[in-house]
Structures are given as structure tokens and as C-alpha cells.
TrEMBL record, chain A:
<protein>
    <submittedName>
        <fullName>Protein FdrA</fullName>
    </submittedName>
</protein>
<dbReference type="GO" id="GO:0005829">
    <property type="term" value="C:cytosol"/>
</dbReference>
<dbReference type="GO" id="GO:0006099">
    <property type="term" value="P:tricarboxylic acid cycle"/>
</dbReference>
<dbReference type="GO" id="GO:0004775">
    <property type="term" value="F:succinate-CoA ligase (ADP-forming) activity"/>
</dbReference>
<dbReference type="GO" id="GO:0004776">
    <property type="term" value="F:succinate-CoA ligase (GDP-forming) activity"/>
</dbReference>
<dbReference type="InterPro" id="IPR016102">
    <property type="entry name" value="Succinyl-CoA_synth-like"/>
</dbReference>
<feature type="domain" description="CoA-binding">
    <location>
        <begin position="191"/>
        <end position="283"/>
    </location>
</feature>
<dbReference type="Pfam" id="PF02629">
    <property type="entry name" value="CoA_binding"/>
</dbReference>
<dbReference type="InterPro" id="IPR003781">
    <property type="entry name" value="CoA-bd"/>
</dbReference>
Automatic annotation (TrEMBL), chain B:
<dbReference type="Pfam" id="PF06545">
    <property type="entry name" value="AllG"/>
</dbReference>
<protein>
    <recommendedName>
        <fullName>DUF1116 domain-containing protein</fullName>
    </recommendedName>
</protein>
<dbReference type="InterPro" id="IPR024033">
    <property type="entry name" value="OXTCase_su_AllG_h-dom"/>
</dbReference>
<dbReference type="InterPro" id="IPR009499">
    <property type="entry name" value="AllG-like"/>
</dbReference>
Amino acid sequence: MLHCFILKGSFQDSVTLMVLSRDLSALPGVAKASVMMGTPANKDVFRETGLWHDTLDEATPSDVCVIVDCEDAARAAGVLEELKTRLADVAKSRRASGYPVARSWRRARQLVPDANVALVSVAGHYAADVARQALDDGCHVMMFSDNVPVEAEVELKLAARRRGLIVMGPDCGTSVIGGVPLAFANRMPKGPIAVIGASGTGIQEICSQIAARGAGITHAIGLGGRDLSAAVGGISALTAIDFVAADAASRVVVFVSKPPAPEVKARVLAALKLMQRPVVALFLGDRQAARRDGNVHFAQTLDGAAALAVDLANVDSQASHQPSAAGLGICGLYTGGTLAAEAAQLLADALGLHADETHAEGYMLRSGGHRVIDLGDDLYTRGRPHPMIDPTLRNEMIRALADEPTYGVLLLDVVLGYGANADPAGVTARAVAEMRAARGGAPITVIATLTGTDQDPQDRASQAAKLEEAGIVIAESTRTAVELALRLVQPPVAGIGAPPPLLAAPPAIVNIGLRGFADELQAGGTNVVHYLWEPIAGGNQRLQRLVAALQ
Amino acid sequence: MYETINEANEAVLNEIKRARPRLVDVRPAADCIPVLREGRTLLHAGPPSAWADMTGPMQGAVLGAAMFEGWARDAEEAERLAASGEIRFTPCHDHSAVGPMGGITSASMPVLVVLNEVQGNTAFCNLNEGIGKVMRFGAFEGEVQTRLAWMRDVLGPVLSQALGMVPGGIDLSVLMAQAITMGDEFHQRNIAASALLLKLLAPDIAACEASTQHKEEVLRFLGRTDQFFLNVAMAYCKCVMDAGAAIEAGSIVTAMTRNGRDFGIRVSGTGKRWFTAPVNTPAGLFFTGFSQDDANPDIGDSAITETLGIGGAAMIAAPGVTRFVGAGGFSDALETSEEMREIYVDSSPMFQIPTWDFQAACLGLDVRRVVETGITPVINTGIAHRKAGIGQVGAGTVRPPRGCFEKALEAVAETVGVAVD
């Protein structure tokens, strides 16, 4: 038998009521208990779940509706008392919060005047109105709420765009702005990587993979699962890209989403290509033919994207210690044929050049002012030992760079092991020193890869030390060596302006909806005010319009 | 005249802030309130009410007043007279007056005279009778009559003489600014203000021409009557709110009051029009032997203190009385005052509250904010027994019904020509 109670004018958030429903249903003698606010949608739920009671007709959206399925009326009354006690406990525990609590947007802003982000987690039916109020008052919006109509999403995002603001969401699970985790997020080490994504767990996994590799993030900006659909058109994605592009601290960018609508993807890619810094794009499930398009690298997996981003961040860090080689050429002098081929191919891919197919005179690449030569080619070994054994020829060619100021980067391999020269690093270091001395002031960055192990007779560690002592940069792989070389000859265009306000300082938050988010923000030291939201004018639409008209 | 409601409200608040009421005299009510000179007339609390609609405490006070004025020899005769329609009832609020609980005020009862030296308006309130069996809570026989006579014959004249010796009267803003820092919120707790008033008046009472016995009686009465200043604070608030109401525009609430059946409010933009809805019944703590079942529904003009922004809105100023709010303590008081910030649009230039980190008391209750947030003012109140003749049974808090604010908002919209579907 169904018993119905209505608690007039006592708004509670849906999560609190769901927990209470579960607990009350577990009481002895109770078949089922359901507690919800009296919104039209919730009334439908009562109907659909066989818990309808005609008393519910008189409930308004600001009334707590209680349905208890049990035989005994006295038992039902007991359940109601239990509910009231628990609601009082909820209210009491809230009083202990260390942050201010407001009952209106206006008061929330008074209490935390520098609040600049609204974290919205009210029921989807109300979320758009709440978000609009925040945008109108100049605040960015993170919408955790779902079930927001797509028309409302577009309208809000266009309004945000006009005001230079961003709407993260709706249905946005994760963002980390200036180190402040919003909604579902991880506490991340700081670092040079910005993550933008339409996938909450995708962002969380990439971030934690980045942390596992010893790196960190500037910001993670969530967009909401629908942002890259044709209907929404990636409005927030483009805003996020603009924001990050203006943020000098974000040296590398990861963009993650499910495959966007084709026209949206084109727009997003165009924006990513204008970011003037390395970008890793992961369109999950999209079989990207190219590995790279200019500054945009395509990854296939979450960990792959994180690894690539960390590599690129390391390259960026190395580049920051080297003189600019803007517009100069890259010269690769390799003793190993496969290493030369890999370097040539990677350079050709990145620069849109063609690797040399004929390999005449050992040239693996000879184009665009760049060259990569395989000194193990037959031409160079005719009548003399392989350069891995006798580096004389390569040393001569290194020294010859003294007279070639159009080259700003030199790529080398240093191969250790049985059969190789007893001290390849030492002889190479000497040749580089002589070249530099003869070159005068013209700077050149020398980047070497080391092939070999610590068990090799030459000892990898001491070989590396010799190279570093000579001012030679050691790259972990041909791939990162080539990235660094490219970074030096094509440095990012300076002139990144002041960072956008959202990213300039840790945000202050107006939390609207789930109380737990405010608790967590407070615990993390963030300036937060909780807006204990209820439907305006108790959900009476006529009064809502009247209040609005009389402001 | 004003471009926006906000502009109008600013003008109203400006008048409220400028007002400087002083306690200048204590006079027989008929001297001050012309309507009381017209036959058998009684003032009552709340929006207009007929005898038949009055609840126990107000009816009891009517009987007491009828006997006190000599219109009836006993309660039965007084009741017949009241039921016959020969007594004219009119709200205190229509005559620059206020009265706690039943608010019943008759011609020969003394009233406090509070004069606003800036805008020139006056306000009146009867004198506090102390605790126990008192007329304002509906008691009407025996000691009630004895006390009313003493107040008429001794207390009123002695206070009048003493106040006559204070040049310009007593600056109530200054006194109250001091008392709020001493833990008064001026509705549930007035002990500091009452003591300060006695401190100011004692030398002049001692020096006035009354007999030694009368002076001793008055000093002893003031010394034991902790809530004596409540009626002074009410007259003060009425005086200030009337000064604001003179702007005749905007959405600031200028009166909140209850007659035991209806809660009535007036708003700055709609003049003397009442917006009413059925009152709630206060909840709180009860004297031994009484319970919630004995409580009369909300009654009295004393919500004029919350109209200004003290009383319940300044709960945090008076941690000593927060037990009336609920089981909690200081944090409940803080939460109440913080909540009230949502619906009051401004702050008092006079009343700083130390326990609120020296924030000023609330000012300017805005009908729009009440409707928008659904938050109604918290009113601290005494609780009368629902039957006539028994008196006070407890104290607690109560909220007005939302309905009167919703009706007022509709009316404000009409005055500025705003219509919605």
C-alpha cells in the first residue's frame, strides 16, 4: 500500500534524496521508499515506477515528495519521521562547512567577489537558467549537469563566446583549471602540458599517464560530450584552443575526443595548427592515416597521446636551453644507415619534403636547405674502414660545417658496442669543439643519439658524459632528436599575449548543486562559495517572470 | 518619478538612514492619537480585524481595555459590548502607532512619543507591562487592571516629567547602537537597552517632582522589566519606516504585522494598502506546563523590528536568545542572519554587530528578493496562549507566509506598469 507525504517548501538536491530513498527503502517493514522533488519530470517517474499517489498532484517543484510502500500506516509515519531526522542531520552537517553559503547568485557573488567560475550540477531541467545567470554576470561555466537540451547548449555557448567566456559542458565530468580540480578530477602535478577534451575519463586517464611519466599539466579543459557534434560545432573547443594558445605556460597541447563531425574536425584541426606549439590530437577510434600534420601529431591511444606529449614537452624544455636556429638548415651526419633513413623520413614528413629515393652519395635527404647523409654508404667506405670504426671522415665533415653558416643544427649518431670505435664520443666531441672554434660566433646546436648499453666496452654513461661536457645535446631517440632539431629551426612565433583571465590565476568558484564539490574545493584550499540553489520563486513561472521584469 | 524600482528603493533607504527618532515624552494615548478621542475606539495589532475574527489574546485585551476605560464593569459586560459592534476597532499602524501582541491601546493608556527630528514625523507605542499576567497577551482581570491604572497614574506621569528634563529627549539611534553591541536584537532581547534607558533616566526621575514613593515604584519597575525597551524600539522602528514610506515608491517593506489570523505587510510603492495571508504559528520553547498545542497563531505589531532589519534579522547580535531558533546555538544565529542578507538589500549605518565581525545590521527588506529566493524573514516573538486571559506561554520564532509578499509583488508591478502573462 502506498503512503504519500509532502514536505512543503523544503528543497533538497537530488543526490541527497537518492541516498535517503535508498536508506529508507532498507528499513524493516518497508517494501520501497522514494523521495523526490515535485517536478513534472519526477512526477512522471513516480507514475512510471508504479509509485503514483493522487496527493502528488498538489506538489510543486519546491516540495519534497515522499512515497512509502508498506502495509502499515504507522510504519509509514515512522519512515516520515526518520526522513525528517535525516534531513535535519544533513542541514546540521552543512552548517559546519568552512566556506560561505548563499541562497542567491547575487549573494554568492557578494560573499566571493572574485569568483570567476560557476560549477553547475543542478538537475538538467534547471541547469541552463543557472548557467545563463553566471554568464550574464561574467563568469565562466563548468556544467556537470546532463540532460540539458542541445538548443540550450548552443545558446549558452554562443552567449559565452560573445563575452569571451567558456562553457565547459554540459555533461562535463572533468576540468582542472590553474591546479584546481573541478568535479571529477585528479590532483595533478604542475607541468607544461595543457589538455583539452570532450571526454571526462579520457582527460583523467591522459592526465594520470602524464603524471606517471614524471610530467604535469597547466590546465585540463573539458568541453562536454556534445561539443564536437555538428549541432554544437565545437564552440567551446575553439574557445579552449584560443585560451590555451594565449597561455605561454602551456607549451604542449593534448586534444582528446571521440571522432568529431567532419566539418567540426576540420575547424578544430585548423585551429590546432595555428597554435604555434606541438599538439597531440587523439580522435578515439578514428583511423588517422597521417601520423602528423605540421605541428599536430596524431595519437591512437590514451597512453600513446600522453607519452608523445611528455616527449614533446621534454624536447621543448631542451630547446629552451639552445640558441635559436630559426630559418637555418639541419645537417644529419650518420654512421648508421637505418638511423639516417629514420631521421630523413621524419624530417621529410614534418617539413612536407621528399626523402631522397636514389641515395646518391649517401644522401638520404637533400631538400629545403636540409641534408641527411649516411656515411656508411658504399661511396664513403670504399678503400677505408666503416665510419663506426674510424670516424675520420665524419670528423672532417663536422669540421667542414665551420664554413657552412646556413646550418644551425647538426644531428649525429654515436654507436657503441663490439667492433665499434673505442671512444666514439670522445673523438666526436673533439671534432665538434674544433668546428665550433673555427666557426666563430655562428651558433650551432649539436644533437646526438647514443646507441648502446652500459654493459658495452665503451660504457654508455661515460660516453654520454663526454658528449654533454662538449655541449652536445643527447636525445633519447632519433624521433626526439628530429623533433628538437625542428623546434630549433622553426621556433614558435613569439608574441603570445597576456594569458586569458580564466587561466591567469587559480579560479574562485561558485558551486551550485552538489554540496560535495564545494567540500572538496574547500579541502583543496580553493576559494569557494556554495550557492544553495532552489528554483526561483519556488518554481512558480509567473512569479519568476514578474521578478525578472522588476529587476 | 523614479526611473527604476532600484532608484525608488534607494530613495526610501535614504530616508530611513536619515531618520533620527528621539524619545521625547510619555502622554495619554488620546492626547496623541485623534481617533481615540472619538467615542469607544480601540487600536489593535495587525491588519484590520473585526471582533469576531480576533483570536483569544486580542479579545482578552479588548475586554481588559473596555473595563479599564469604564465602558464595562466586568468581563461579561465587556464581551457583550464588543460583540454588539459598539466598539470601533482600527489598526495601530493607521495612526502612527504600534502595539505588541494584541496591540490593544485605549484613550487613557499612556504611550511613548517618539519624534523624528529630521523628517518631523512621530510614532507612538504603549508601555511595556512587564511579565506575568499582562494585557498584551490577553489577560484582563485583577492585577492586570491594577497595573494598567498604575501605569496611567504613576508610570506615565513620572516618565513624562523625567523626559521633560532631558533637552531634546533621548537619541534612540545612539542608545540602540550601543545596546546592539551589548547583545540586544531589540525583539527577543532588550535587557541592555532597557538598562541603558534606565541609566539615562534615573537621575531625572530622582530629580522630578513626583512623590518619593512613586519615584521608587517607577525605578523598581524599570529595574525589573527587561523588555521595557521593546516598546520603545517598536516606536523607533515605526517612526523610521514611516519616514521611508513617505517616498511612496519602490518595493521596500514598510510594515509587517499580524492580528492573529492574517499576516499583513505594507510596501513603500503601494502606500497604506495591506497585503495579507493567513499567519503561521510560532514554534519555540514553552514555560513549564505549556506546549506547542497552547500556542496562539502569530500576533502583534512587534514585527516592525524585523521590518527595519533588527529582531530576527539581527539574531547574530543576541547569541543569548538563539536557543529559541532551534537546538543549536551560535552557528544557527549566524546562519539565520546570513540568510536574511539575501532578502534585505542594504545595511544600517548605525547598528554594527560585533559578533558578526562588525557587519552592520540588515536594512531594506525587498519584496522582490523574498519572492525570488522564497526566503521569508525570521521573526523573533513571544508566544501567547490561544485562550484569552492566560497570557504568555513561551517564546520562539515564526516566519510570515509567502503569500502576502507575492500579492505585494503583483501590486508593485501594477504601480510601475509591468505586466506578465
